[in-house]
UniProtKB/TrEMBL annotation:
SUPFAM superfamilies: MFS general substrate transporter. The keyword Nucleotidyltransferase does not apply. This is MHS family MFS transporter. CDD domains: MFS_ShiA_like. Residues 12-507 form the Major facilitator superfamily (MFS) profile domain. Its main location: membrane. It comes from the Bacteria. The chain crosses the membrane at residues 21-42, 48-71, 83-105, 111-129, 150-172, 184-203, 239-259, 279-299, 306-323, 409-434, 446-465, 485-503. It is a multi-pass membrane protein. PROSITE patterns: MFS, SUGAR_TRANSPORT_2. Keywords: Cell membrane, Membrane, Transmembrane, Transmembrane helix, Transport. It is found in: Cell membrane.
Length: 512
């Protein structure tokens, strides 16, 4: 490729990637702060239910992504790629900023979770139109035979967006006291997004329409009804279904297991300090991100199919051993406590005129350098210990582990391995989808299977898997922490079988 063409496509990638990265940042802020948000927008009397409700609200944004794909995909095939994902950028940025302004549950009651849900739905609609537009736009600028390499740069944006969201949260936490962050500082990452969106808008407004779409439009060959031609045509519908059940469904669950489920697992099951989790996850993402480009480039040489299927198969086989090792790395029953250093500090907190909390804060040290803070809260009303609907004493226990350096790097390595699985299935997927469909209905046709696979199958993973873990724990299963993995393993296994049987290598050059 000539230097002039290379410079031109780098401008395209920079403009597309910047906006897409910001939209992923906006979307991930909510997931990254799920533990904090569960205490702000939902009733605090049942922390587990509040957290599951937060995850369900997070998942709602994914569920509506296919509708965004249909709506904005149709617009993209009718009026063009550029203007469509300009709209999605502004919609996403506005919704994220407003989430940061919503009063807490204590202030406005159930209006808080309702407003958050509405804004999450708007975010989901916007993201449903963003990815297909950006991937299509870059692919239609890329030379034949190099689409895997060039579109893989778009694939890095989701991970970069998650990384930046974690870094913004870490910086905000370090700049504020723990009380200030819990009180209002958690809103800052939401507010920051509006500045990033403005910069991206300035960059994107000077972009030109993709040459492939411009040519199709000039020749009068654009679709008059993209939805009908995409899904009403049996031949094209066959490829839509194959893209979903043979590729994006498995890619979606591998993606969210390796990043969001890993993060939630470290924070809620292993009870590791939130800032430490953000840091180690950020390190794993930095180390893993270049492999998106590597596997995208490799797919141009050897084909998309076996790289994506290989990533799914390895994930299926290794998820349970990896998560078992993650859990045992910080399992306190496998560590030696320094009993002489254990401290218990009792305190009382008046909730209102009739309610009082009795709080016991226990700090423990272990020989390997692990430190644990356990806060046990007993709720009293009118001098009597409160009970739940089952008659059990209402006692809340919160454990926070500060892990040692050795454990931190072991967890970085274990998360990094999962990120490699992600890069194998995700690096080639944009080129794979673009090449399956003709220009005139490409935006619509590729967006739907991508967002059903990622939005429905992938987006529901944190909530479904967390529910499985909670149920197994309540049922007394000693390996409860592994039960949430059956969902991604099952979905990826079905996708692997379908993909291996029905995906043909010729698809790679169908519309190249």
């Amino acid at each position: 490729m000539s230097d002039k063409k290379t410079t031109g496509i780098w401008k395209v990638i920079s403009a597309s990637s910047m906006g897409t990265m910001i939209e992923w940042y906006d979307f991930y802020i909510f997931g990254s702060l799920a533990v904090v948000l569960s205490t702000k927008f939902f009733p605090s009397d049942n922390p587990t239910a509040a957290f599951l409700s937060t995850l369900a609200t997070f998942a709602a944004g994914f569920v509506v992504r296919p509708f965004g794909a249909l709506f904005f995909g149709r617009l993209g095939d009718l009026i063009g790629r550029k203007y469509t994902f300009m709209v999605t950028l502004m919609l996403m940025g506005g919704a994220t900023f407003v989430i940061g302004c919503i009063p807490s549950f204590e202030t406005i009651g159930y209006a808080a979770p309702i407003l958050v849900l509405i804004l999450r739905l708007l975010q989901g609609l916007a993201l449903g139109g963003e990815y297909g537009g950006a991937a299509t736009y870059v692919a239609e600028h890329a030379p034949a035979g190099e689409k895997g390499y060039w579109t893989s740069w778009i694939q890095t944006t989701a991970t970069v967006g998650l990384f930046i969201s974690l870094m913004v949260i870490l910086i905000t936490k370090s700049a504020l006291s723990k009380e200030a962050f819990d009180d209002w500082g958690w809103r800052v990452p939401f507010w920051v997004s509006i500045l990033m969106v403005f910069v991206s808008y300035l960059i994107r407004k000077n972009m030109h329409e993709s040459p492939a779409f411009a040519k199709t439009k000039a020749e009068g060959k654009t679709s008059t009804n993209p939805l009908k031609e995409s899904f009403g045509n049996k031949y094209n519908l066959k490829f839509v279904l194959l893209a979903l059940f043979g590729a994006t469904m498995g890619q979606g669950v591998v993606w969210y297991t390796g990043q969001f489920y890993a993060m939630n697992f470290l924070k809620t099951v292993q009870c590791i300090d939130s800032s430490q989790v953000d840091m180690l996850l950020g390190i794993a993402l930095i180390l893993g991100t270049p492999f998106f480009v590597f596997f995208g480039w490799l797919s141009d040489k050897v084909g998309r199919k076996y790289i994506m299927m290989g990533g799914m198969l390895i994930a299926i086989l290794l998820y349970r051993p990896i998560y078992k090792q993650m859990y045992e790395t910080t399992d306190l029953t496998l560590k030696s406590e320094i009993v002489a250093n254990t401290k218990v500090v009792p305190s009382m907190k008046e909730v209102d005129a009739t309610k009082m909390d009795s709080i016991y804060t226990t700090t423990k040290m272990y020989t390997d350098g692990t430190a644990v803070e356990e806060i046990q809260t007993k709720h009293f009303e009118a001098g009597k210990l409160m009970v739940d609907e089952k008659g059990k004493e209402k006692i809340e226990t919160k454990i926070t582990k500060t892990i040692n350096s050795s454990d931190k790097w072991m967890l970085v390595f274990l998360v990094f391995i999962q990120v490699i699985f992600v890069t194998m299935v995700y690096g080639p997927i944009a080129a794979f989808l673009v090449e399956m469909f003709p220009v005139k209905i490409r935006y619509t046709s590729m967006s739907l299977p991508y967002h059903v696979g990622n939005g429905i199958f992938g987006g529901l993973l944190p909530a479904i898997s967390t529910y499985f873990v909670t149920s197994a724990k309540d049922g007394g299963n000693p390996e409860f922490y592994l039960e949430g993995l059956w969902y991604p393993i099952g979905i990826a296994a079905v996708c692997f079988v379908i993909g291996m049987i029905y995906i043909d290598r010729k698809i790679n050059t169908l519309h190249d």
